[in-house]
Structures are given as C-alpha cells and as structure tokens.
C-alpha cells in the first residue's frame, strides 16, 4: 500500500484517495440483491466516522476482521445519499511492526491529566466535612480508580466522548455547582462537589477504550449508575467512619443524577443537592456536545449542522466569528 495520508477521515473530500490506520467501529454481514453476502463496515479515527463496504472475498475478510481492531485501509472518498463514504481498494489488519499512531485514532481532552489531577486535589481539599474529605482522599488515592478516572471518556458519541472526558466533565460540574450554590445558600457545598466528582464514576468500567470508545460487556449489562453504586459501597466498607445519613445522600445523588425515569435513572432527585446535580449534568453534557457539533460545522463551512438525532433538531452554526483585531482595514471618516 502507499504510505499513510496526513489527513484524517473527516478532513478528506470526495475524490481524494486515502491510506491510513483506522479502527473498525461496526462490522455487519449483509446481503446483496442477489443474496450473496457483503460486509458493511464503519471506520473511525479521532476526527469521526465513515462507512465503507467489502463486496468481494467476504468469507476471508470475516475471518480476520473484528470490531475494535486497527486496520490499514486504502481507498477513495465518494458520496452516497449526501454522506461521505469510503470506496475500499485495499484492507488488512494492522501488523505489530506497523507505525500505528493511536493519538490519531481517539480524540483526547485539551486539558492535561496533570492539570486535572491538581484541580481534583484542590476541590477535595476544599471540602469542609472531614468525613467526606477523608473518603474522597482515600477513594482517589486508589491507583486503579485514579488511573481510569483520568483516562476514561464520559460518553461514546454524545458528550465528552474523548479520553479524559470523564474527569473534565466531572470537574466542570463541580465548578458549576460551586457557582450555583451562591444562589442557593441552603445547598450543601460539600455534597455538591462530592456528587459532581462521583456521579459518573461507574463509567470507568462501563466503557472500554484503546483504539475506539465502546461499551464494555459489563457496561451494557449493568450500566454506569449501578456499577458506580457498587464501587462506592465497596470502598465505603473500608471507611466505616462515614456517617450513614451523609452516605445515603451521596449515593442518592449518584442514583438520581440522570433525573428522569426515561433517562434510565433508578430514582428521582429528592434533595436540593440532587436536583442541582441533575441540572448541572444536563447543562454541561449538552453544552459540550452542542459546542463540538457547532465548531465542526463551522470548520466545514456550514451554517447549519446535519440533523442531530439526539437533539432532535439541526444546530445553527452561523459564520465563524472573526478573531479580535480582524476587520476592515480601510480608511474611513468614522
């Protein structure tokens, strides 16, 4: 195959040829009109996803291709029903000696892990309740928890769907809730920070990430809310000094943070802190998703995004805002 192309998938235009390492996100065996099989594939890198089909030698490809695998792909970009797709010319699994750059495969938070670790520590040390503060210290000092917390995404596709997204989202929520508490002084600031930091902790096991983000088997079967409850209760056994009433409120926030039964929450928010947590979660997740979609549309020169199923609408991107200092350089009388 030719050497890898510098451009990422979503940077390619119809008519361009492409060679590079991508991950397989979806693999389905489908039937042509004559009844013979073909493979419907979806490839991804950190820029997004693109589909392509294998029409020939299907049985051989079925033996060597699988979801989550890195492959070397050579093809050209075409369009079908106004969407870009790949016409596959050559395809093979990546080999150990191949120069695969995983940073091209999954997007990463713009915030560094070191900076987010320091941010987390500041928030924990700002907790006034000694029992809560001690629990948070011990919990996040567990190397397995800490390592996964700062690596994990917060979503597969919708919000903070990149490495480091879980920590970024949780830290954002803590800061949002500290601001909100200025308007609701009866809200317990320690519980708000704790709920923000712990509400999505189950996602460290709900998702798996290596070359692409997907659900783990445990994540699909149990879900991050129940996983989070189990994980926290396990650690609480090592910390018997935590008062029962405080602990029940923390667990209530974790269980109710998705706010509505139709959002798969097992219980509705029943405290002031829980409802504020739900609102902050909704705001930060939607704002992150909308912002990424709008910025991508602007980069592509589109005033409107494509139809977003999860938002049930198109998003208005408008024109990219001019940078400060830009503008007319003409001499005028005004």
From TrEMBL:
Residue stretches making up the HD/PDEase domain: 162-295
GO molecular function, one term: hydrolase activity
Protein name, entry field: HD/PDEase domain-containing protein
Domain of life: Bacteria
Natural source organism: candidate division LCP-89 bacterium B3_LCP
UniProt keyword list: Hydrolase
Hydrolase among keywords: yes
Ranges annotated as spanning the membrane: none
GO biological process: rRNA 3'-end processing
InterPro entries in the cross-refs: HD/PDEase_dom, HD_domain, HDIG_dom, NA-bd_OB-fold, NA-bd_OB_tRNA, YhaM_exoribonuc/phosphodiest
One of the Pfam families matching this protein, by short name: HD
